[in-house]
Input
Amino acid sequence: MSTDWSTTDDQALRDRAVKRLKKQRDFRIHLLMNGLLVVIWAMTGAGFFWPIFPIAGWGIGVAANAWDAYGRDVPTEAEIRREMDRLRTRT
Output
């Protein structure tokens, strides 16, 4: 019984790509919602900038979401093997 590594690798890569695209979509939705708060503020007289409070709190989550969606990636098998080899040589 042989394993078709190409198909398995392609499926794993596809799964990673789908997951990453979903995270990027979620990030854009969060940005849109924060922008909507500013639009509501502007349409209601643009007095004291009250959207700063929800944006500041929400912004922490949005920043973490941005890092997750765009900044970091799951390590590749080659990176994992290199790190494992490095750790083996240290012991």
DSSP finds three helices and no strands in the chain.
